[in-house]
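protien #1 (seq + structre)
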Amino acid sequence: MAGGEYPTEIPLPGHAWDFFKWRREHKRIAKMHEERGETLPAVSRNGAALLRESVDTVTWSGHASVITRLDGKTVLGDPVWSNRIALIMRRMTPVAPAWEAVPPPNLITISHNHYDHLDNGTMKRVRRETPVAVPLGVGGWFRKRGFRAVHEFNWWETKEIDGLQVSFVPSRHFSGRTLWDRNKSLFGGWVVQGDRHGVYHSGDTGYFAGFREVGDRFPGLDVACLPIGAYLPPWIMKEVHTDPDEAGKAFVDVKARRMLPIHWGTFRLSDEAMDEPPARIRAFFENQKLAADRLLLPDLGEVVRLDGSATIGPSPSRPRP
């Protein structure tokens, strides 16, 4: 696996017994949050039509799944349209828009091979001639399933795919789908650029100096999709997931025009309440005196135009965290 300037070996926190004790405690905490009542992301009922127009847009579909439209082409980042991941963890909110409403993808990007980012059920829906961009070591998974246009990337590598400039950038995370393949493949984020706009999808990551380099190498990005959830308890999560304040710092480092928070409100992966991350990232923007319109917190499936004009609006009943 590629190494380079940024660390690829994240130390395992604690011992296995500590992890199992936390999982028992996690169930108690999750029940407490559910009994209290949490505000979950609302679902847009009127956004999918814009996906069919020749307008550059970005759409959060839940967790780390992002639909990007550039130059009339559809890019799916870490698409997970299944109701459960690895047949175990259920979605807390529906995926949006429905798969049938999404234009056939011209490109799929995968940040790493964890089950909540590389979903076999979703990939079964994808045509086998669809180009996929994946980290080094993940290509075999796709070739085994009959995909014919598999592009493997090392960090900082750029390729042109169907007229789009596609670049793979570092993250601070790890990879693996079993107990025996930890870090046997690479992990990272993606910068995809069309003629008019560019979008950065970080994938899963802890906070690290690489965000500044992404901003330096790719100036003027329109949207940075950055993870704000799965940060408690910190003794497990801090090395590999940003909390909302760290994600805000990453946004400042990347110097994108706007931030789209991802990796929250979909699967209960950690101990924080489902509605805590958006409240904290709003507070970060307020405390840092960042313009409120630079923070995108759309409904699930709500389509946001990259030219900065009006979006297809949120549901009238949308609850605000």
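ok now protien #2
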Amino acid sequence: MQNYNIEEGPSTLGALRALIPQRSCTFTEALRVAELQASRLLTLLRVEQAPIPSEIISELPRIQVEYRPIPMSGLSYWNGTVWVIGLNRAEPPTRQRFTLLHEYKHIIDHGRVEALYPGSSRHSADRQAEQAADFFAGCALMPRLLLKRAWANGLQTPAQLAHHFETSELAICVRLAQVGLVDNTDRHGGQAIYRRESAPLHLAKETRVKLEGMLDIERTADVRLGVSRKVKTQGGRDGDGYSLPQQRLNHGPADPRDVTRA
């Protein structure tokens, strides 16, 4: 198996953070940065074919992945020595893979959240951060080039593509809309945004219903749990020099009725 623990020059995390503009961004720009970061991640780790291995994150320096009995899909925090990504051990592998990349995006964004996600009259800054993390995960697990290549080679049903990329069919449907391989998408800045009405009309009815009811394609938590992802972060600096004062990171609870997520 290929070793993804590569440290040649700047760290992988540092290289991805370097792509964030040193100014305030619009949400459209933040989404473009997220896709660029996903592409750069795969390039740095020399990943050129599907399925994208989870080891591209789990084998990185200063990243510790733990499978826990937690009441949400995932969480991430700095423990003073390494970045910890906690994954719900009871969830399917496809969901865990998506959650892993989603949480890594939060780690990349640390220290630049306010500049990347300004919020709007329709979406809070926290919600934009969650959408961008979803988008990053989709871009990393289902890269635009590889998805179009698979489509051209005859893999054109959600089931076929989900098997090929080791993701859920719902995640595949959203990603197909984002790259323009299906019609009737709601677009924002050139990318399909996770919206109730963004389900492709030609998909099976039961698939459309699921898509229309969720923003979080891979990681919908049960709002009845009332869980708020507040994780205490130890002080200090991470491996790339980012200051990490003691604070509580809150990505918020998920409420499928409001298409927000934990």
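Residues 185-233, 245-262 have pLDDT under 50 and may be disordered.
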